[in-house]
Amino acid sequence: MKQKTQRKFAAFDIDGTLFRSGLYRQIFYELISMKVVPTEIAEEAIRLHRQWRHRVHGSAFEEFERFMVDGVDGMLKNLRIDDYDEAVRRVLDSKADDIYVYTRNLLRTLQQQGYFTIAISGSQHEIVEPFAGRYSFDAWIGQYYERGDEFFTGKVLKTHTGKDEILRKFINEHNLSLEDSYAVGDTNGDAGMLKLVENPIAFNPTDELYRLARQAGWKIVVERKNVIYELESHGDTYLLADPES
């Protein structure tokens, strides 16, 4: 029996990598505006968000993110599924086109070259699925909130860590090849899948991922306003590459 030819693949993080914000973060903001988040959680989130926006200290963003994720996880049993689905719909309607130029173009180019494209996100499945479909990904996975009759049960399947193991499952399930493979991510949670591929790209990396990328010699790309900076390793130094070359 003839063995099926393996296909090249590219894996993308979504939040902060393709999407300019965090899908899960936008849902949280929407839930607050709908007044379905408990007052004490909403007020503390607003305070921490202000600290992050004002760069009060170096870990302000991580502190806000942890509180937001823990806050939503903690309120799931009291969150109506219909309210959550409405928040998802609003975010998709208003924000789904807010994406980065570099990763959008890279995704399109690789798709045109026949790559199997994968979205691996820590955002919820309910928004990852339509978002990934909008950009023609072949496969995707997002965090899963178990549903009851009217409310969520509180059980959560997390996908923002262990992305290397998730990617390996996709590779096995879809007969994919690591040869000339790509992965793009922006935080240390993406490090596992970046280490796995031949062409890792640290895009708008956090300080932690930036340091890891420099140590490993990975390509680093920064998109700021309408300018894209590509940094490539040349031994012990990084040089600015011409993205048009």
**What's the mean pLDDT score?**
91
The fraction of residues in strands falls at: 25-35%
Class inferred from helices and paired strands: alpha/beta
SSE series: EHHHHHEHEEHEHEHEEE
Helical content band: 40-55%
Tell me the CATH superfamily of the domain at 7-20 and 99-241.
HAD superfamily/HAD-like
The name CATH uses for the topology of the domain at 7-20 and 99-241 is Rossmann fold
Order of the strands making up the biggest sheet: 4-3-2-1-5-6-7-8-9
Oligomeric state of shown chains: single chain
Architecture (CATH level 2) name of the domain at 7-20 and 99-241: 3-Layer(aba) Sandwich
Keywords:
nine-stranded mixed sheet, 245 residues, 43% helix, alpha/beta, Rossmann fold, 9 strands
Summarize the topology:
Blueprint lengths: L6 E6 L10 H11 L5 H15 L6 H16 L5 H15 L5 H12 L3 E9 H10 L4 E9 L4 E6 L5 H11 L2 E10 L5 H6 L2 E5 L3 H10 L2 E6 L2 E8 L2 E5 L4
Parallel strand pairs: 1-2, 1-5, 2-3, 5-6, 6-7
Antiparallel strand pairs: 3-4, 7-8, 8-9
Helix pairs in contact: 1-4, 2-3, 4-6
Compact overview of the structure:
By secondary structure, the chain is an alpha/beta fold. The protein has a domain at 7-20 and 99-241: 3-Layer(aba) Sandwich (Rossmann fold), CATH 3.40.50. The chain is built from nine helices and nine strands.
